[in-house]
């Protein structure tokens, strides 16, 4: 196999263009590493969100403007950015080889997974059109926007119950729509003793509204007038590429990449940051872990090249 030259190898390759990936790229290049950021900002769950709970940001900012600013900042510091997906990932002779959707193959000394999680969708009329306008996938992120409002949570498991209970501290009325609710006895007891109104044995057929959510049409023919709907079907991490490398998932849920406090995985040179590394799904956590991952990956690459850290 032809030996790779330093000029053809990236020190750090970051997969995912959300807040974790942006911050990782910024810190990697500021550690004098050659860094490549792969991904599209519109794929980030932050893209369609509104942010008001992030330190040092005044008022409400859109996820899109934050991500666009982060992309410009990373590029300005010297990171290379390609809006492409990774199709294949393998490790060869101590380096990582990535096949990209555009046909290119690139090589890196380290890899950072910052791909977030793929939120499960209802896939019903109105969901896509009203995303960000009353349709939400994160109670912890958006509950504060529904103070005094009427909302519905949709789901059949603990994530939906927990979200509904949380919303009782904000909304005036909370519905929980489920087909077959399954959870622990303790959580079901909390739900029973709460003001949440259960709507059992049915599902959402359509989300209705002109410019924002106004009502839900259920499969039993019932219509609920609501200001917002929280879709809490759980989240599945984009793990396929990581598993190809033998990266270990967390043993409790098998839905996130297992990391230590330095964002290291069980595979040397592979790091994970943000939602893909586990709960809570918050921008503050993603940025913090991205910072650590970027610095640690840069240090690893320098050691691999025989340079001091």
CATH architecture of the largest domain: 3-Layer(bba) Sandwich
Rounded to an integer, what's the Rg over CA atoms? 21 Å
Give the H and E element order. EHEEEHEEEEEEHEHEHEEEEEEHEH
Could you say which structural class the secondary elements and strand pairing correspond to?
A: alpha/beta
CATH topology of the largest domain: FAD/NAD(P)-binding domain
Portion of residues in helices? 10-25%
Number of domains: 2
Give the helix tally.
7
Average pLDDT level: 90
List segments where confidence is low: pLDDT < 50 over at least 5 consecutive residues: none
C-alpha end-to-end distance = 29 Å
CATH superfamily of the largest domain: FAD/NAD(P)-binding domain
User: What is the level 1 CATH name of the largest domain?
Assistant: Alpha Beta
How much β-strand is present in the residues?
25-35%
Q: What does the largest sheet look like?
A: 7 strands, mixed
